[in-house]
Amino acid sequence: MTNYDALLEEVRKLGMDHKWSKMFVKKLSDDEKAFPVSKEDARWALERGFYPGRITLYGLNEENYKNFVPDYNYFMLHPMNNHFLKWLDKTTLKYVLNSNGCESTMPEYYVYVENDGSFTYLMDVPAHIEKNKDFLFNLLKYKGILAMKPNSGTSGGLGFIKLELKDGNLFENNKPIDMQRFVEIRDSMRNYIITEYAHQHHELSEIWPDSECTLRVIMAKNPKTDLYSLSTWSCAVSYARFGTSISGGASNLSSGGVGVGFDFETGKYNDFSIRYKRFCPDGEWMISKHPDTNAQWKELSLPNWTKVKKMINNICQHVSSLDYLGLDIIITEDGMKLCEINSHPAMDYEQIMCGPTLLKKDVKAFFENKGLFTFDCKAFCDAYFRCQE
Hints:
The protein is of the alpha+beta class. The protein has helices at residues 4-13, 20-34, 39-46, 54-58, 71-76, 90-96, 135-143, 179-188, 202-205, 305-318, 350-353, 361-370, 377-386, and strands at residues 109-113, 119-121, 145-150, 161-166, 169-172, 175-177, 192-196, 214-221, 233-242, 258-262, 269-274, 286-287, 324-331, 336-342. The protein has three domains: 4-77, no CATH class; 83-104 and 200-367, D-amino Acid Aminotransferase, Chain A, domain 1 (2-Layer Sandwich); 108-196, no CATH class.
């Protein structure tokens, strides 16, 4: 049995970012529960930088393991973006993308809730709504539905909230609530942004109607041979996330949603999707259709993709001082809305949905340039085995 507290200290000694190392150890713990392996197989994987369960998840062997981004190396690269990382703060990003043809990609921003609970009114706040304790309810009456999300972290455990007023009834993430709960939400928010709620394209609603499908697209800036040339970008990962009946409506995989890869050039879905194994009672984590609506992936592709792909490339050029972007996107009837940009998004099940990342020549060059293969994985393996009880 692994002593994860001890392992956390070990990987920090090896140089992993102090805060980021917690996520690394948590994911290793999840991996060991989902995909137990023998001690011999664990050593083989760890010496190559992978969580042991990747042998099963990726089908790793001596011939193909170099096609996949190793977990230890990927976490050791953090942070991959430079001092312009501050642009990716959710509130700052709205201002950063408010020019150069990117304005339409962001939802309307109404309020930032400060750490003391006070409201700071943002650029898209309706001028006619009086600024008092009833502001949030009156804004909800005016808009009908709002998105409320932490500016960073989970902000006290509230997480993302879809707040809706429909036919005089209040709803939190599609579940009915009373006024007491509404007041509790209003008074509990800290470091929160209240924005327009982006509605997905109707074709996506036909696959799963109870929450918005969000795309995760990871873009990597290609290393330059000419220092004065325009930056170019390559797609490392592209997949869509849909909610399910067991995810509480949420589309993220960590809540029980499903993910399906798609071709970045065409927007066509792959033939299969995946769920985290812990949400699969029958153990089948790779599936050919949506588990609730039975939508067949191989028959479908993303709507509005040509327009959305162009906007993604525009955003990359606009923030080209950054190197690595995990964009979360909702495709709407007339284009797209950007939920956020992650600076170091997950790279695990993504390599099943979208194929081995390092088989993409330009993406491999990006990671090589960042130093992906410069870390001593054997030292990590030795540290792991020192933490066995």
